[in-house]
Automatic annotation (TrEMBL):
Its EC number is 2.7.11.30. It is found in: Membrane. It catalyses: L-seryl-[receptor-protein] + ATP = O-phospho-L-seryl-[receptor-protein] + ADP + H(+); L-threonyl-[receptor-protein] + ATP = O-phospho-L-threonyl-[receptor-protein] + ADP + H(+). The chain crosses the membrane at residues 88-110. Belongs to the protein kinase superfamily. TKL Ser/Thr protein kinase family. TGFB receptor subfamily. Its cofactor is Mn(2+); Mg(2+). It comes from Sinocyclocheilus anshuiensis. ATP binds at residue 195. Keywords: ATP-binding, Disulfide bond, Glycoprotein, Kinase, Magnesium, Manganese, Membrane, Metal-binding, Nucleotide-binding, Receptor, Serine/threonine-protein kinase, Signal, Transferase, Transmembrane, Transmembrane helix. Residues 1-33 form the signal peptide. This is receptor protein serine/threonine kinase. The keyword Zinc does not apply. SUPFAM superfamilies: Protein kinase-like (PK-like). CDD domains: STKc_TGFbR1_ACVR1b_ACVR1c.
Length: 457
């Protein structure tokens, strides 16, 4: 009976008992308490006792434990976790995906808008882009005159170059190659040519700009370099080389002599060393071909594309080989280049390879010369012996092993000018580089021919 009454009291007032036990348990020294969560109370049970314990302490502790057991044995309502429906689950997944797609489309639109804005062609130049470093009314001829008479002969100051490059209006693309694209542009109403490199070809751009700015390099038969700059349009970096624009010129008998003589004059100037405080080192082109020779409106040529050129330091007898991976055009490679017998440490070897290539350019010019209304269709050298894009092995077999050269038609013998040209070509094509003519010797021979024909340069 007494036990039943005690159980009823425990069931009726568990919270008070537990509260007493909580107070009591806090006074028990050296004990560890476990906290138990239930639907009616928070209780503390003695889990481990350390030290002596009186009887009343043990009974109260047992009472609390019994009450907690009763509480825990009762059914406690549990809350089931919320289950997402198919619509909510789909929304949870689709939401972040839509946000990411929106951000990607926004970024693409901004980049595309910047690209279109950069490449759009305005109808007229913006006068607000003029710079005080270049006075109003200054022309390209004035700038070229200033850079040739300033004493340094190494080109315009870098700040002026950048000013010019950033005020040029691109018109249209006139050519595209493996390493860049050439655009026709306008600067203050004057036509210029802009060679644009990608940022991957920064070495080639830097090398060509460096060669063009060599002291005393400027010559009427070498492409007139104006400026170099790098432009960031927001999405990629473009590397610009700005030069004078020249139009194509129809080849005639008189034109053949002008083209050949001016080409030889330009190469002779490159190969020549000018000694002095404002001197010029000897330079070899290493990639001479018809595509790298531009024709001016007066019918003379100028040599372009100096990205592979090398300079010779006579004081130390060293060559600054271009630090890039480009090689010359296989079709125009000299025999010693094709069979790897060229002496890379001897500067004269590079000059002799240039002479071989110039002989092939002369053949292209002479082939288009009309005599009595008869002329050949334009063809590349060795067009009938190799494919359109020959390999080094193919060219070596034809040039070195079979020792073949471009065909010289018999009709050339009926014209004095073509006879002289044919003789020069053969002496440029010798397998032995040391036996070939020099650029200066070719220039003198063609100058005499020009005087005989009464041609004024």
């Amino acid at each position: 009976m007494r036990r039943r009454r005690m159980m009823m009291m425990m069931d009726a007032v568990p919270c008070r008992l537990v509260f007493l036990a909580l107070l009591f348990g806090a006074r028990i020294q050296h004990t560890e308490a476990l906290q138990c969560y239930c639907h009616r109370c928070v209780c503390v049970c003695v889990s481990e006792l350390k030290g002596p314990l009186r009887r009343e302490q043990a009974s109260v502790s047992l009472l609390v434990f019994s009450d907690v057991s009763l509480l825990l044995s009762r059914s406690v309502p549990t809350q089931k976790p919320a289950v997402l429906g198919p619509v909510a689950f789909a929304a949870l997944i689709a939401g972040p995906v839509c946000v990411v797609c929106f951000l990607m489309v926004t970024v693409f639109y901004i980049c595309h808008s910047r690209s279109v804005l950069h490449h759009r062609v305005p109808n007229e130049e913006d006068p607000s882009m003029d710079h005080p470093f270049i006075t109003v009314g200054t022309t390209l001829k004035d700038l070229i005159y200033d850079m040739t008479t300033s004493g340094s002969g190494s080109g315009l100051p870098l700040l002026v170059q950048r000013t010019i490059a950033r005020t040029i209006i691109l018109q249209d693309s006139i050519g595209k190659g493996r390493f860049g694209e050439v655009w026709r542009g306008k600067w203050r109403g004057e036509e210029v040519a802009v060679k644009i490199f990608s940022s991957r070809e920064e070495r080639s751009w830097f090398r060509e700009a460096e060669i063009y700015q060599t002291v005393m390099l400027r010559h009427e038969n070498i492409l007139g370099f104006i400026a170099a700059d790098n432009k960031d349009n927001g999405t990629w970096t473009q590397l610009w080389l700005v030069s004078i624009q020249h139009d194509r010129y129809t080849v005639t008998v008189e034109g053949m002599i002008k083209l050949s003589l001016s080409t030889a004059s330009g190469l002779a100037h490159l190969h020549m060393e000018i000694v002095g405080t404002q001197g010029k080192p000897a330079i070899a082109h290493r990639d001479l071909k018809s595509k790298n020779i531009l024709v001016k409106k007066n019918g003379t040529c100028c040599i372009a594309d100096l990205g592979l050129a090398v300079r010779h330091d006579s004081a130390t007898d060293t060559i600054d080989i271009a630090p890039n991976h480009r090689v010359g055009t296989k079709r125009y490679m000299a025999p010693e280049v094709l069979d790897d017998s060229i002496n890379m440490k001897h500067f004269e070897s590079f000059k002799r390879a240039d002479i071989y290539a110039m002989g092939l350019v002369f053949w292209e010019i002479a082939s288009r010369c009309s005599i009595g209304g008869i002329h050949e269709d334009y063809q590349l050298p060795y067009y009938d012996l190799v494919q359109s894009d020959p390999s080094v092995e193919e060219m070596r077999r034809v040039v070195c092993e079979q020792k073949l050269r471009p065909n010289i038609p018999n009709r050339w013998q009926s014209c004095e000018a073509l006879r002289v040209m044919a003789k020069i070509m053969r002496e440029c094509w010798y397998a032995n580089g040391a036996a070939r003519l020099t650029a200066l010797r070719i220039k003198k021979t063609l100058s005499q021919l020009s005087q005989q024909e009464g041609i004024k340069m």
